[in-house]
């Protein structure tokens, strides 16, 4: 690109120079018909033809390289963005500022990086062209060069000012743009379409979208009108300059100070010089916007990521199980504690059920246990080793967890199970084993393509599953990780009917013998089967024991159990 850009910068001047030689050779041939001037004129025409061909080849090659580079660059930038995102902690994703940068960096990744390259090279080409034009024009008159540059100055200043304004405008509109994008997602995304239709949200979404658009449009219009009006009037200065220089060149030709060939060359160079200035200005304007993107991209890439310190893969007290020691936790940016002073021991082979009202902190407990967040104070030990000391992969191998909002991947049924263990993602025999354990096998085998049935709406012939069927898939996913000795189910069975849930939990318990099984459920018929139950309220453990003990105690658990049981009588 560098070599081609330099060539593209120099060639126009060379073509203009040869053009002058042609005119002069033609005039010489007319005045001396018998001389060799015919041959000379013909020779210069051939040279110009070759130069024009070179110019065309250069332009083609630049376009080709830009297209090739565009794909490579956008892939590269996408990977940079993705690697950073994968290294970030969950809490950072929940930080609106960081997430905003991530979304914006991703949005423009396919087009903006190549536009940066294009603008830089366009500017270099304009400067090279101007230097070569200047070098030739200066031999006619240094004033011509000075006029060319000076006439470009007002337009340059105006362009800088308006580009600066555009830059500020972009900054200002970014949160508004994000709101607009969200509305577009809600209105058009297949996940939202049911509610949007049934609640008649369409007109409301469109109105909000239009209101934001009108606001942004007014600001855009003001900027564009200013930019173009000033551009036109300042452009007139350029035209006036062109014709004054034109006049002086014509006068010089009449006075025989320069040849006719030189006259055409100088005029061509001056005109092209003005075009080079316009192209350079456009590049500078574009670079302001590129700069905005770069600042967002680099801000995002510079986001500090906490290095997980742990490298250990075994604890000092094997078979010690899990211990929560005075664990308290507050979500980043939140004033209130979601968990307070949690002390809890879960021994290997034990099944533990966690119950509590909505928002009491049950899922948060699991998020800390799976190290998605770090405790604000206190510590969690696995086999006597602080969770923070465990290596990422060792911990991942030990814990299998399914959250209530597990992901419905638009992949094959088998792959939806396979995600439970990325190392065996495509291992069909593992899918089958896990499906049997998760009690999903019967319905999967009744599907037309069995484990190879495509799910979701994104791809052709994708099938829809019921809520309960999806949950069976999610359960099977939990059983993919055969090495895991801690299995956690955070309400993934709520869409199953009560008898199926009870069966599932019974089988879950049998299959997790010798392992730690943790279950969150609002169904007491299932909860009662656990070896031990804890009741969480306002982020604290308020009761613990097995079903019989808690019923005898007659406190919160007994009360909640009776309320639910009376509903079935
Ligand atoms: N990502 C988050 N950022 C800030 N606060 C959160 C976040 N997730 C949960 N909370 C808050 O933490 C508290 C505990 O939430 P948690 O999800 O643990 O409740 P839960 O007991 O699992 O509830 P449910 O039974 O409804 O699933 C709630 O007050 C909730 O608003």
TrEMBL record:
The chain crosses the membrane at residues 36-57, 120-140, 146-169, 230-256. Its main location: membrane. It is a multi-pass membrane protein. It is found in: Cell membrane. The keyword Cell membrane does not apply. Residues 1-278 form the ABC transmembrane type-1 domain. Gene3D superfamilies: ABC transporter type 1, transmembrane domain (1.20.1560.10), P-loop containing nucleotide triphosphate hydrolases (3.40.50.300). GO terms for molecular function: ATP binding. Keywords: ATP-binding, Membrane, Nucleotide-binding, Transmembrane, Transmembrane helix. It holds the Pfam family ABC_tran. InterPro entries: AAA+_ATPase, ABC1_TM_dom, ABC1_TM_sf, ABC_transporter-like_ATP-bd, ABC_transporter-like_CS, P-loop_NTPase, Type_1_exporter. Residues 322-563 form the ABC transporter domain. This is ABC transporter ATP-binding protein/permease. It comes from Marilutibacter chinensis. The lineage of its organism: Bacteria, Pseudomonadati, Pseudomonadota, Gammaproteobacteria, Lysobacterales.
């Amino acid at each position: 690109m560098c070599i081609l850009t330099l060539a593209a910068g120099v060639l126009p001047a060379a073509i203009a120079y040869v053009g002058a030689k042609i005119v002069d050779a033609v005039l010489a041939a007319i005045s001396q018909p018998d001389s060799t001037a015919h041959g000379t004129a013909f020779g210069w025409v051939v040279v110009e033809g070759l130069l024009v061909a070179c110019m065309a080849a250069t332009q083609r090659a630049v376009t080709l390289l830009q297209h090739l580079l565009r794909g490579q660059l956008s892939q590269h930038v996408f990977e940079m963005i993705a690697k950073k995102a994968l290294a970030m902690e969950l809490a950072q994703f929940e930080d609106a500022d960081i997430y905003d940068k991530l979304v914006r960096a991703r949005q423009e990744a396919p087009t903006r990086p190549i536009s940066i390259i294009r603008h830089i090279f366009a500017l270099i080409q304009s400067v090279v062209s101007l230097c070569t034009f200047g070098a030739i024009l200066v031999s006619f008159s240094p004033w011509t060069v000075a006029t060319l540059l000076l006439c470009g100055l007002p337009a340059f200043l105006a362009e800088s000012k308006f580009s600066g304004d555009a830059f500020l405008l972009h900054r200002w509109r970014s949160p508004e743009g994000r709101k607009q994008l969200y509305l577009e997602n809600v209105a058009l995304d297949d996940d939202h379409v049911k509610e949007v239709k049934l609640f008649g949200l369409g007109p409301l979404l469109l109105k909000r979208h239009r209101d934001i658009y009108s606001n942004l449009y007014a600001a855009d219009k003001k900027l564009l009108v200013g930019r173009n009006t000033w551009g036109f009037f300042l452009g007139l200065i350029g035209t006036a300059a062109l014709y004054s220089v034109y006049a002086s060149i014509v006068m010089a030709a009449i006075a025989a100070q320069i040849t006719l060939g030189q006259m055409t060359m100088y005029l061509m160079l001056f005109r092209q010089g003005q075009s080079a200035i316009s192209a350079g200005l456009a590049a500078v304007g574009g670079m302001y916007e590129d700069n905005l993107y770069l600042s967002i991209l680099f801000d995002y890439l510079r986001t500090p990521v906490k290095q997980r310190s742990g490298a250990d893969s075994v604890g000092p007290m094997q078979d010690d199980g899990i211990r929560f020691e005075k664990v308290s936790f507050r979500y980043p940016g939140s004033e209130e504690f979601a968990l307070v002073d949690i002390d809890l021991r879960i021994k290997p082979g034990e099944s533990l059920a966690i119950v509590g009202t909505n928002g009491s902190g049950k899922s948060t407990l699991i998020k800390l246990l799976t190290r998605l967040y770090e405790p604000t104070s206190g510590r969690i030990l696995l086999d006597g080793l602080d969770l923070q000391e465990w290596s990422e992969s060792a911990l991942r191998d030990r814990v299998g967890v399914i959250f209530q909002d597990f992901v419905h991947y638009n992949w094959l049924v088998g792959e939806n199970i396979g995600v439970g263990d990325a190392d065996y993602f495509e291992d069909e025999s593992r899918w089958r084993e896990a499906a049997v354990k998760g009690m999903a096998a019967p319905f999967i085998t009744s599907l037309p393509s069995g484990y190879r049935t495509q799910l979701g709406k994104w791809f052709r012939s994708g099938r829809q599953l019921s809520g309960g069927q999806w949950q069976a898939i999610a359960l099977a996913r939990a059983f993919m990780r055969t090495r895991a000795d801690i299995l956690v189910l955070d309400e993934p069975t709520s869409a199953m009917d009560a008898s199926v849930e009870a069966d599932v939990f019974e089988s879950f318990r049998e299959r997790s013998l010798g392992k730690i099984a943790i279950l969150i459920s609002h169904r007491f018929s299932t909860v009662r089967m656990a070896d031990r139950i804890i009741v969480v309220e306002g982020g604290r453990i308020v009761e613990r024991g097995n079903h019989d003990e808690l019923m005898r105690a007659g406190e919160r658990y007994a009360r909640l159990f009776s309320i639910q049981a009376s509903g079935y009588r």
